[in-house]
Amino acid sequence: MRLPQAKLDSVLDRFHEVEARMGAASDGPEIARLGREYAELKPVVEAVRGLAHARAEAAELDEMAGSDDADMASLAAEELDQLNARLPDLERQVALLLAPRDKDENASVILEVRAGTGGDEAALFAGDLFRMYQRYAQRRGWKVEVDSVSEGEMGGYKEIIASITGDGVFGRLKFESGVHRVQRVPETEAQGRIHTSAATVAVLPEPEDVEIEINDNDLRIDTYRSSGAGGQHVNKTDSAVRITHLPTGIVVTSSEKSQHQNRAKAMKVLKARLYDRQREAIDSARADARKSQVGSGDRSERIRTYNFPQGRVTDHRINLTLYSLPKVMEGEIDELLDALIAEDQAARLASLEEEFA
Q1: What pairs with residue 201 in β-bridges?
Q2: Cα four-point dihedral sign 259, 265, 270, 273
Q3: Distance between CA atoms of residues 21 and 318, nearest Å
Q4: How far is the CA of 239 from the CAs of 37, 66, 126, in angstroms?
């Protein structure tokens, strides 16, 4: 891929502009925004400068290869061949950095896991999935905080909602949204028959306060008593909070002991869901032009099957099967995530090639 010099120059120009504005800015939010853009542009600029240096060196070597000095010409030609062999990789690295990317790539997320078809077994599987993500987050050094939970009668969760905070969380987990199917023999199955059940996963980027505005008049906020075990406080205090967003009908709840904390947590989840609706609307509008459906975010789509008798996990979007299910359930999911991200990167590169064609 031969990247146009004008495109590379525009990146450098923007970087210098942001750098200059950072030095002159005095408004806190603007400084923060410019700081984020600077951090995003810096690796791109370093790659662009590296490519420019390699191209300039190739031009010099090409000129030297035509020298009347036979020894110098031979040495320059040899170095030029080596450099020309490296240039496509440098071009690809820069192109990948320039390809359109999700602006929420570095965002923290709201993770929602819900039991689907399969009754008690689905709730148990939802619990297994949540623990898988929890263990993966621990491996990455991310912080996991449960915002809301509804436990299953036999264990696991009917629904669990948690915040995962850290750098690049959404970029790693965004392809996990969808229907996850499990095939295994439930503990309650006396005949040893394999059952199929499912759970749904939603990974929502957590928006910044400036991105989502909510009118207080659009909210109905109810308090009620928390249910379940928890002592006198849970049984006697109207601490649980239910927030209904009237224009969309979205309902969020939180039922910890502090009403103030419950309201804050519920509002955070509500903002994430409203923001996700905006993202879905944009994705739907672009659906016909998409080269890959890996990142479609369609939560009605069965994306993965976990087959316990055979110890395998299959991602249906990229036809990848791994025979390492025990490790996957312990949170070792990088091989799956890396393959999904590589597929998405290939699609973005193909889109960029069409743009420059």
Answers
A1: 113, 178
A2: negative
A3: 43
A4: 41, 82, 26
Q: Which residue has the tokens 């103030």?
A: 260
pLDDT at 288 over 70: no
Q: What whole-number distance in Å separates Cα of residue 252 and Cα of residue 59? A: 61
Helix, strand, coil percentages for the chain (3-state, nearest 5)? 50, 20, 30
4's tokens = 């146009």
d(CA 31, CA 16): 15
The predicted structure's pLDDT at residue 181: 95
**Domain spanning 109-346, CATH class:** alpha beta
**Region 71-77 average pLDDT:** 89
Tens of pLDDT, residue by residue over 321-351, are 999 999 999 999 999 999 999 888 888 777 7
Q: Largest Cα–Cα distance of the chain, in whole Å?
A: 95
- Name the residue with tokens 């996991």: 144
Whole-structure pTM value: 0.71
pLDDT of 255 higher than 80: no
User: What is the CB neighbour count within 10 angstroms for residue 177?
Assistant: 22
- What's the CA gap between 192 and 173, in Å, rounded? 34
Beta strands in 134-284 (DSSP E): 143-151, 157-165, 178-184, 195-205, 219-224, 240-245, 250-254
What is the distance between the alpha carbons of residues 319 and 100, in angstroms, rounded to a whole number?
25
* Burial grade of 22 (CB within 10 A; 0-12, 13-18, 19 or more): middle
Ordered by start, the domain boundaries in the chain are 5-98, 109-346
Q: Edge-to-edge strands of the sheet including 302-307?
A: 143-151, 157-165, 109-115, 195-205, 178-184, 302-307, 312-315, 320-322
- Going by C-alpha positions, the residue among 231, 160, 232 that lies closest to residue 200 is 160
Three-point CA angle 90, 95, 98, nearest 5°: 130
Question: Would you list the DSSP string of 96-111?
Answer: HHHS---TTTT--EEE
- Rounded Cα distance, 17 and 6, in Å: 16
Q: Mean pLDDT, the chain, as a whole number? A: 84
Residues in the chain, total: 357
Determine contact, residues 304/180, Cβ cutoff 8 Å.
yes
